[in-house]
Specification:
rod-shaped, mainly alpha, 0% strand
Length: 71
């Protein structure tokens, strides 16, 4: 006689995401596109303003990357 053990049905695991009722987030690529567009005319911008523009792109990329996993 063979005894068969029944495996319990696995329960669904919670999926990370925004809290219930949270406002839908905009597409992070929009901010990246805007920040990158600010680099288009960099040749005509005074050198002192370059750092500010590069910082804006860096911030948008950081935001986009952190939103991938909802971190």
């Amino acid at each position: 006689m063979v005894t068969v053990q029944h495996q319990p049905t696995p329960q669904p695991r919670p999926v990370p995401g925004p809290p219930p009722g949270a406002a839908p987030q905009s597409d992070p690529r929009d901010g990246i596109d805007r920040a990158m567009a600010a680099l288009d005319d960099l040749e005509q911008v005074p050198l002192a303003e370059h750092v500010e523009r590069f910082d804006a792109v860096h911030s948008e990329l950081t935001t986009a990357l952190s939103s991938i996993d909802k971190v």
